Amino acid sequence: MAKLTAWDRQRVALRAEITTAACALFVQQGFEETTVDQIVETVGISRRSFFRYFGSKEDVLLGDLSARGDAVARALAERPDGEDPWDALRAALVAAAPETFSDPVADLAIARMMHETPSLRARLFEKRRHWTDALVPLTARHIDAPDAQFTASAIVGAVLSCVDTASDAWIASEGKADMADLYDRAVTAIRTPRRQAAAGEEAAAGQEAAAGKEAAAG
C-alpha cells in the first residue's frame, strides 16, 4: 500500500472534520434544516472547498458507501470457493462492517435520518447499485449451476433487502436490538418456506402437547 503524503493526510483530516461537524448539525437541527453554508461556517472553509470533498449534502452521510461496497467485495473475493453464497455474503458484510459512532445516540439519530429522509433514501439506493454490480459476479463463483449469474443476482438483491429490513427494525427498537441477529432473522424468513415453517411450528406444538399428556398421566 502506498504511503500517504502529508497532503493526503491533510485532505483525510479535513474530510473527517467536515463529516463530524455536519453530522453534529444534522443531529442537532435535522438534515433538511441544515445548509451547506452552516456546515462550511462551522468548519471555517469555503463552499468551494466543501464541494471539493462532497458532491452534495447527502454525500456527507453516504459518501463512503461506494468505498464500503468495495470493502465488502474484497472480503467476498477472499471467501473460499464452494462456500454457501448466503454464508459467504454474510461473512463479507461482517468483515467490512463500519464502526459505529462513539455516541450511540448520534448513531441512532443519523440512522433514523437516513431512513426517514427521501433524498437520502434515493441516494442510498443509487449508490447500492454499485454494490450489486460488484457483488453479483463474485457471488456467482459460489453457485454451481448453469444460471449462476441469475441466481447470484437474486441472492445479492435479497441480502441487501435483508440488510435494509434489519436496519429498519434496529431503528424501531431504538438501537437496542442486535443488528446481526436481525439480519439473520430476515434471511431465515426468506430462506425458510412458509409451509415448512408452519409444519415445524405444528410439530413443535404436537411435541409440547404430547409431553403435557405424559406429564399428566404420570
From TrEMBL:
Keywords: DNA-binding, Transcription, Transcription regulation. Residues 35-54 bind DNA. PROSITE patterns: HTH_TETR_1, HTH_TETR_2. Residues 12-72 form the HTH tetR-type domain. Residues 197-218 are annotated as: Disordered. The keyword DNA-binding applies. It comes from the Bacteria. Pfam families: TetR_C_14, TetR_N. One of its GO terms (molecular function) is DNA-binding transcription factor activity. PANTHER family: HTH-TYPE TRANSCRIPTIONAL REGULATOR RUTR, MYCOFACTOCIN BIOSYNTHESIS TRANSCRIPTIONAL REGULATOR MFTR-RELATED. This is TetR family transcriptional regulator.
